[in-house]
Amino acid sequence: MLKRFLIVIFFFLIIFSSLADEQKIVYLNVDKIMQESIAGKSIKNQLEKIYNKDLEKFKKNDEILKKKEKKIIAQKNIMSQEDFQKELTSLRSEIINFQREQVKSRDNINKLRIGATNKLISKLSPILKEYAKKNSISLILQKKNIIMGKKEIEITDEILSLTNKEIKDIKVN
To answer: What is the topology classification, in CATH, of domain 23-166?
Structure first.
């Protein structure tokens, strides 16, 4: 009885190992595609323009607030204590609003980045499906989730060239 059980298990192992050999598994560096593809570079450039525009606006507002602060401090001895406190409270309120605007701007840029990345990934998905179908690939894994793998089963460069041919631009806004 034990011999028959071991023989059955042995045959199952042989059958399943031969089936596993037929499965083709590859991996892909999605971060590289995000950074080096034409669409990925387009996203990065658009976000940098938005960031630089906001940064310029915030630098100007920062200078204005610093000038107001210096003016208030210079007039401290001339103003009454009550007027000085009103001016100081007003300046603090402006600084708090300024900081809120900065946080809102950073959050907006992050939302735009996430949205554009999701658009690129959604456009990349059909490319991966078609590539997997043509090359009889059973499973595509992300490189960041791989501890070790043969360089021969990495498909990043092929997918990058296909992505550059099919996806030229992603609008951030």
So the answer is: Protein Binding, DinI Protein; Chain A (3.30.910)
